[in-house]
TrEMBL record:
InterPro entries with a match to the protein in the record: EryCIII-like_C, Glycosyltransferase_28, UDP_glucos_trans
Organism annotation: Deinococcus roseus
Domain Erythromycin biosynthesis protein CIII-like C-terminal: 284-413
UniProt keyword list: Transferase
Protein name: Glycosyl transferase
SUPFAM superfamilies the UniProt entry points to: UDP-Glycosyltransferase/glycogen phosphorylase
Keyword Transferase in annotation: yes
Length: 437
């Protein structure tokens, strides 16, 4: 039996991927403590984990970021991303480290599992505490074959492409996120932490990537500790009360299009409105999930609107999924063989949307606010093209994985050895070197 400590940022989308792993750890007889937001306490405790609240860092788990940081409203686009990285992520680091040291001592934790945005995870890992990372988005680590994460550039492993890629890392570190890196450098120096530019970095011990290579860019230098484990999908709800229009979906006579606005960028006029307007005269059934807010614009006759419907129940009946690029929703769609139309450019959404088009499972509209006609044409193209066939191929690849079980086995190996857990390519290279010597 091992005592595992899980640490997640106070952001709703960072909770769901960890829940299946935590439940699987507990089912194997391990003890789990979970450090996170009081706003997420019910969801955390529902897994069976012992809850430890954020104490010395800001708990913005209510997702009202502008309330906590009023000056944030002065920024938009990339400037707001820089603000968020500086204040939400880097600004939480000192408090997180203090909190996690306390939990480790109180709970007698032996292994830490964190999400990539928890800066304290890398800090403690650099100090030698066994640290695993569970990625919550697409592969984002530095590679000579990829441009810096967040720029939305496609991979290029050619000679000139690799020069381009190298330049982008310098630009991100020293220009785009110069202010963020300066803030992090100051905090690291103050506390005696090892410093590296603040951008996605794999754990030196173990990184779990919740997908399969079929939905990722091919890279020739995958970090040695990164393991593809397959998708971590939410459990089906124990109780589900179908909406009054449910029979229209289950016994459908026309294509079903699902559109969602996500959990962070929740302005319905960005994606839901143009989707409803663009499909108003089409022979399709449109299901829109708003995440809570009611719509301030007319709803066409062929549309059904709900604050929330469990995607585990709805997605098997969907023909096209329209999204602003949320990784969790797209993962559920592909696990059900549903092709995607993605329209998002904030957070990690450019990168996720690029993978949608690169892998052949859908289209990337490359905007937060597509025109109604743009959405309509994209959906028609997806319905008529080979995108659904490619989505079914990834569905098959997903189905062949044992994601939570694999994650637990890798975490148990880290707990047993206290050493980096190498992927098959790195382990094979090491074996060949040993044989030669």
């Amino acid at each position: 039996m091992t005592r595992f400590l899980v640490a997640t940022m106070p952001i709703p989308g960072h909770i769901a991927p960890f829940a299946p792993v935590v439940r699987a750890l507990i089912a194997r007889g391990h003890q789990v403590a979970w450090y996170g937001s009081r706003f997420h306490q019910d969801k955390i405790e529902a897994t069976g984990a012992t809850f430890y609240p954020i104490q010395n860092a800001l708990d913005f788990g209510d997702s009202d970021y502008n309330k906590h940081f009023p000056e944030r409203t002065r920024y938009s686009g990339l400037k707001q991303v820089v603000f968020d990285f500086k204040h939400l992520f880097v600004g939480s680091a000192e408090g997180q480290v203090k909190d996690l040291r306390h939990v480790i001592s109180d709970f007698k934790a032996e292994v830490l599992l964190s999400d990539p945005a928890v800066v304290a995870g890398l800090v403690l890992g650099n100090e030698g505490f066994p640290h695993a990372m569970l990625d919550i988005s697409v592969l984002s680590f530095e590679s000579k074959d990829l441009a810096a994460f967040g720029l939305g550039l496609l991979p290029d492993s050619s000679f000139f492409g690799r020069i381009r890629n190298k330049i982008t890392y310098w630009m991100v570190d020293h220009v785009v996120f110069r202010e963020v890196n300066q803030a992090y450098r100051n905090i690291a120096q103050k506390n005696g932490w090892q410093y590296a530019p603040f951008r996605p970095t794999p754990s030196r011990y173990l990184t779990l990537q919740p997908t399969t290579p079929e939905f990722e860019y091919p890279v020739s230098d995958l970090p040695d500790t990164v393991h593809f484990i397959g998708p971590l999908l939410p459990d089906r709800p124990r109780a589900f009360t179908p909406p009054i229009w449910w029979n229209e979906v289950v016994n459908k006579t026309r294509p079903v299009v699902l559109v969602t606005q996500g959990t962070i960028a929740t302005h319905a006029d960005e994606l839901i409105q143009p989707t409803l307007e663009g499909l108003a005269s089409e022979d399709v059934l449109v299901i829109a999930t708003t995440g809570g807010p009611s719509l301030s614009f007319p709803v066409p006759q062929n549309a059904r609107v709900e604050a929330f419907v469990p995607f585990t129940e709805l997605m098997p009946h969907v023909d096209v999924f329209v999204t602003n690029g949320g990784y969790g929703g797209i993962t559920i769609a592909l696990a059900n063989g549903v092709p995607v139309v993605s329209a998002g450019t904030t957070e990690d959404k450019m990168e996720v949307s690029n993978r949608v088009q690169f892998s052949g499972v859908g289209l990337n509209l490359k905007t937060n606010r597509p025109r109604p006609e743009q959405v309509r044409q994209a959906i028609q193209q997806v319905l008529q093209g080979s995108y659904g066939q490619q989505a079914k191929k990834i569905q098959k690849a997903f189905a062949a994985t044992r994601s939570a079980e694999t994650a637990v086995e890798l975490l148990e190996e880290l707990a047993r050895t206290g050493k980096p857990v190498l992927n098959s390519r790195a382990a094979g290279t090491l074996s060949r070197k040993t044989a030669i010597q």
